[in-house]
Design brief:
259 residues; alpha/beta; two-stranded antiparallel ribbon; 11 helices; 41% helix; globular
Amino acid sequence: MLILLPPSEGKTAPHRGAPLDLAGLSSPVLTDARERVLGALVALSSGNPTEAVTVLGLGSSQLDLLERNALLRDAPTARADRVYTGVLYDALDAATLSPAAKRRAGARVAVVSSLFGMVRLGDRIPAYRLSGDVTLPGLGPVAGVWREALGPAVTEALGRGLLVDLRSTMYVAFWRPDRDLAARTATVRVLHESDGKRKVVSHFNKATKGRIVRALLEDGRDPRTPAALAEVLRDLGWAVEVGEPTAKGTQLDVVVSQL
């Protein structure tokens, strides 16, 4: 099983740690693309600040993020599960997983990243600011770079297992499974039900996804089909509805009524 997570917009900047080593990250097939995106981001952030904040979608009070980006090559790094923060990662709380669950997390969880394409929770990365919808000067849309590069990396990491796709819409655009993977791709959507109505609510969505990943890692089972994953999630206490298989995979709706 390979669980794909979105990154967090906010990140915790490490205060100490070795500088970034692209060659030391998992999925070395992505190294060339990582270098191109990193180079374009550093160049932009080191140049005209007015242009950089506009391109990156920053406010005038966020110039410190430009400086952080400009110094990425020498910035201290930490494990990705300590750099990414926010509702989903707080709910996952990787630091408090059991030893067995931590080992599973290292093997089964990956984060789709605008800067690095895909990283494992144990990869050492710096804090950065780069959203998935940015177009970098001299490079083009970040999503386009990863659309060309991510396929082999994800396929290699997945092996013969089930792909559990928890990415947000922005990061789904980086790479979509092909028809050959559809039968073993489960896309998980979280719906909040209130007064008989259902809708996607960001906070419920992120927190529930974090809890789902944590529960799957602690449980330890390794379902191989979307239907088998749905059964595991039901055993773990969630209400799950399974959609019809499509050329893009099978959608699982996890319905929650309270956080």
